[in-house]
Amino acid sequence: MESVAFFTKKFHLSLGKTTFAFFPGFLIKYNQNKTTGRVGVENMPQEGSFISYCGHGVCRIDGLRKMNFGRGEQDYLVIAPISENGATIYLSADNPKIQTKIRPVLTKAEIDSVLADIRSERMAWIDDRKARVARFQQILSQSEPRSLLLMAFCLQARREEKGLPSSELDILHKAQNIIDQEFSFALELPKQDIRQYIHDRVQA
Question: Which region holds residue 61: left if phi is over 0, alpha if psi is between -120 and 50, else beta?
C-alpha cells in the first residue's frame, strides 16, 4: 500500500529504533509491504526547494528520477550544490542513512532563534585531544547548526587564548565555512557580513 502526503508542520515519527524528522515543504512517502508489514519512509523535498546536505552545504533539489547505476533501476533524489558549479549528486531514495544527512535550510527566524538560544551557552573544552578531535569531526559530519556554532565559539576562544594546532584550526575553518554559506543563503547577506550578524545577536 502506497500513499503520498504533504505536511505543513514539523513533526517526528519513530519507527522501531529510527526517528524521522519531517519538515514543511517535504513530501512524505509511505510504502508498506503487505507480507512483512514493514513500513519504509522517504523524506523527499520538493523539486526546486533547497536543502542542506552534509559535506556539500546548500543544494537545490532537481527532482526524483529513476536511474540505473549497475544495481537495477532505483529512485534517486537529484541535487545540485550551489557552491559547486555544474556538480550533480544522486542520493538513493531507498537508503535510510540519507535521512540523517539532509535537512531543510534554516529560515531567518530559525537562525535568530538558534542565536538567541546559545547566548549564554558554551561548549566545554575536552582535554583529551583524541576524544576532542573525534567529537569535533562528528559535529562537522552532522552539520547541525547549533552544534557547529558552539564548536566554532569554543575553538575560536581557545585560538585566542592559547592558539590551535593546524588540524583543529582546519576544523574551525570548515565549521565557519558551513555556517557562513547557509546563513548567507538564508539571510540573503554577503558571506563577509555573517560573522558580524552572529556576533551582534549572540552578544545582544
Answer: beta
Does this model's pTM top 0.85? My answer is no
Q: Does domain 2-104 have CATH number 2.40.10.170?
A: yes
Whether domain 108-202 has CATH 3.10.50.40: the reply is: no
Q: Which of 32, 33, 31, 54 is nearest to 43 (CA)?
A: 31
One digit per residue, the tens of pLDDT, for the chain of length 204 reads 333 333 334 444 443 443 344 444 444 343 434 443 333 334 556 788 899 998 889 999 998 888 888 778 888 889 999 988 888 998 888 777 777 788 889 999 999 999 999 999 999 999 999 999 999 999 999 899 999 999 999 999 999 999 999 999 999 999 999 999 999 999 999 999 999 999 999 986
CA distance 43 to 95: 11
The H or E element containing residue 136 is helix 129-142
